[in-house]
């Protein structure tokens, strides 16, 4: 679908209310799936083809486990993370690398400061420069390197789309989403980025969250994320807060206005904010989860997004639909 077609199909998802006026409106697409996979709610086009960005990380982690990656708990949660770069995150990344006989110098993700303002300030104060270790995708890249070591694959070329690791990720993505991977580009971190449909992304999260075999890669990913939500995001991050609030919820934020979540009963949601803004994502996610059957009271605090005037709330970002609107 062309960019113009994607825009034409988008609908209002959230109003930005300041005082007694709607100041801005965010358009986009949302899909909510019932436990049996039926579409419970579709706003915009559920079949829209998107770049899922970091929301795809749990799917990539499933592919890595299938290929021989031998981590669980905090280490597997970091493989699924867009972490804030706090010291506890960096310690786990180093541990994954050391377990594979590798070091920070083997990471090929883009150097960057931590997402956490406090962590970034401390790194600057301590005299550090932007580094692959502190970039939010370093957990995924460390896991990719560890997977290559476990499978006996070339380590240096792990980002190449033709590498066996990346071919395995493509196959797993197509399988779990039920949608062909028709487009491939480079994500912000330097790893291959795969396209999928919005409903396919929701379908994958529903499958991961509801997998019944505790030894399966899907269940291991779900268990790691739900047991270690701080490692998936960080202090003050809505992805961490929403997984803490809703038992068994597997959720992952992505750049440019993407979010996906799966429930233990197989229900799922996925959304794409058309303008790429992160501002309405939490409010829209909370509303979509309420449609999926989650108690609105559990997600309302996570979705609350105040609009400030002189540092004080004077309005809110308000979803245009659902029980949390």
TrEMBL record:
| Record Pfam families | Asparaginase_II (PF06089)
Tell me which InterPro entries the record gives. Answer: Asparaginase_II
PANTHER family according to UniProt: L-ASPARAGINASE, PUTATIVE (AFU_ORTHOLOGUE AFUA_3G11890)-RELATED
Name of the protein in question = L-asparaginase II
């Amino acid at each position: 679908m062309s960019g113009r077609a994607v825009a034409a199909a988008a609908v209002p998802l959230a109003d930005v209310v300041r005082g007694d006026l709607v100041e801005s409106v965010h358009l986009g697409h949302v899909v909510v799936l019932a436990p049996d996979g039926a579409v419970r709610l579709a706003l915009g086009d559920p079949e829209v083809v998107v770049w899922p960005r970091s929301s795809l990380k749990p799917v990539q982690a499933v592919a890595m486990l299938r290929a021989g990656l031998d981590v669980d708990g905090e280490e597997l949660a970091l493989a699924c993370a867009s972490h804030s770069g706090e010291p506890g995150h960096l310690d786990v990344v180093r541990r994954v690398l050391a377990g594979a006989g590798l070091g920070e110098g083997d990471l090929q993700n883009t150097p960057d400061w931590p997402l956490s303002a406090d962590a970034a300030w401390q790194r600057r104060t301590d005299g550090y420069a932007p580094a692959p270790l502190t970039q939010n995708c370093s957990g995924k890249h460390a896991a990719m390197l560890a997977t290559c070591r476990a499978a006996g694959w070339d380590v240096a070329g792990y980002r190449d789309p033709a590498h066996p690791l990346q071919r395995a990720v493509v196959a797993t993505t197509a399988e779990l989403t039920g949608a062909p991977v028709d487009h491939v580009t480079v994500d912000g971190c330097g790893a291959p980025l795969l396209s999928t449909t919005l409903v396919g992304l929701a379908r994958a999260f529903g499958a991961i969250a509801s997998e019944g075999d505790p030894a399966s890669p899907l269940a291991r990913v779900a268990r790691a994320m739900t047991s270690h939500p701080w490692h998936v995001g960080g202090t003050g991050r809505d992805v961490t807060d929403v997984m803490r609030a809703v038992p068994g919820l597997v959720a992952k934020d992505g750049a440019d206005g993407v979010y996906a979540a799966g429930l233990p009963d197989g229900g799922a949601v996925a959304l794409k904010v058309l303008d790429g803004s992160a501002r309405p994502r939490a409010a829209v996610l909370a509303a979509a989860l309420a449609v999926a059957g989650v108690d609105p009271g559990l997600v309302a605090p996570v979705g609350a997004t105040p609009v400030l005037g002189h540092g004080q709330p004077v309005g809110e970002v308000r979803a245009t639909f659902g029980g949390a609107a």
